[in-house]
Amino acid sequence: MSVVFMKEIDHLKRQILTLSAQVEESVILAVKALLTRDEELAQQVIRGDFDVDQVEVVVEEEALKIMALHQPVAADLRFLTAVLKINNDLERIGDLATNIAKRAVKICKEPALMMPDELSQAAIRARDMVHDSLNAFVNFDANPAREVCGSDEEVDQFCKQVRRFVEEQILKHPDGISGYLDMLLASRNIERIGDHATNIAEDVIYLVEGVIVRHRTDGIL
User: Which of 12, 88, 92, 188 is surrounded by the most beta carbons within 10 Å?
Assistant: First the structure.
């Protein structure tokens, strides 16, 4: 490929890494805001959502332009395809982090509610999945990506336990229904972050090995 093509690919890599850093920071801050009832931190995440959306658009336009102008094949085409998919997942993770932050703001305005340990465990695990999937992408390493895929069920189980906790608390304390519903919605956003982190990990495996592992039913990644 030409020198121009390689420079454009390097620039695209820097852009997607910038977006990755922004999204990971949003998740970290949103989770912290939720668990510590920090309204200012939550507002910071909400204010940053526009910047994430803007970078996502730039990355998509750049990747499509490279594909149109240079018609890459083999590994280069695989990289650009993976970037487009990862870019979309990153934008969705950023949206979900914003949603968590909005729930945190509402919870901060409610009387203090008991939060189940499973909520913090799910939040921390999903946050780590995002971090690990992005590290796998940066390092072009399929092994940590596989570990991320294996963690998704753990987050799902934590979130199921949160749902059961919320149902029990609403029956016991119906006056706190608003806060508990916000807690439930936050846990659902956390669960979706885990799903998108898994998508990124699967795309990393495809990028590194050329193997599509989505929807595998044989248990092999």
Answer: 12
List all residues 6 or more positions away from 82 whose beta carbon is below 8 Å from its beta carbon.
203, 204, 206, 207
Rounded to two decimals, what is the model's pTM? 0.91
pLDDT tens for residues 80-107? 999 999 999 999 999 999 999 999 999 9
In the chain, where the domains are located: 3-209
- Token readout for 8 is 């454009």
pLDDT tens digits, residue range 123-167?
999 999 999 999 999 899 999 999 999 999 999 999 999 999 999
CATH fold label, 3-209: Methane Monooxygenase Hydroxylase; Chain G, domain 1 (1.20.58)
- Rounded Cα distance, 108 and 46, in Å: 15
